[in-house]
Design goal:
By secondary structure, the protein is an all-alpha fold. The protein has two domains: 88 residues, no CATH class; 68 residues, Orthogonal Bundle (Arc Repressor Mutant, subunit A), CATH 1.10.10.10. It is 72% helix and 0% strand. It has seven helices and no strands. α3 packs across α6, α5 packs across α7 and α6 packs across α7. The longest helix has 30 residues.
């Protein structure tokens, strides 16, 4: 990839990478950091990455960076939670909230790879092949993970009181 192709790619792909990172479940600053790291990685490896695979490389790098950051934060939170007593009362399991919050909570329960595939396919509209290239999975793995993610989401939403019968 030449410098010109890189610059054109950044102009075309940076917003997609940021939107993908935000939908994968990070805070705004974490997502910005992940996309910046991905852009830096793409620049560093521009000679090895063909221009046609640039977007896939950028999304993959942003995803890996964001997931690493989120895992690190989760470990920090677990450490803090185990070190200090929690005085907050637990939420009641039958507590109701609107559908959007229910969907967001259901997404957070999914494994990271299923959440990413669900976001790329159902929200962003990527093909199985594009998702597979982005996450280094085969088309059949993408289909299986997507199916499992949808089943888990249905089950989670049903347990929250949202049925498909509407």
């Amino acid at each position: 990839m030449t410098a010109k192709e890189y610059n054109n790619g950044v102009a075309l792909w940076a917003d997609d990478a940021m939107r993908f990172a935000v939908r994968c479940g990070g805070g705004r600053s974490d997502c910005e950091d992940a996309v910046q790291e991905a852009l830096a990685a793409l620049w560093s490896h521009r000679e090895d990455v063909p221009a046609a695979k640039g977007k896939s490389y950028l999304l993959s790098a942003a995803y890996r960076s964001l997931m690493s950051s989120l895992r690190h934060r989760r470990v920090e939170q677990q450490y803090v939670a185990s070190a200090t007593p929690v005085d907050e009362p637990l939420q009641q399991p039958d507590e109701r909230f609107d559908l959007r919050e229910a969907i967001e909570r259901s997404l957070q329960v999914l494994p990271e790879v299923q959440r990413a595939i669900l976001q790329l396919r159902d929200v962003e509209g990527y093909s199985y092949q594009e998702i597979g290239e982005t996450l280094a999975l085969s088309d059949s793995q993408v289909q299986v993970y997507l199916f499992r993610a949808r089943v888990a989401m249905r089950k989670q939403l049903k347990s929250m009181g949202y049925d498909n019968d509407r």
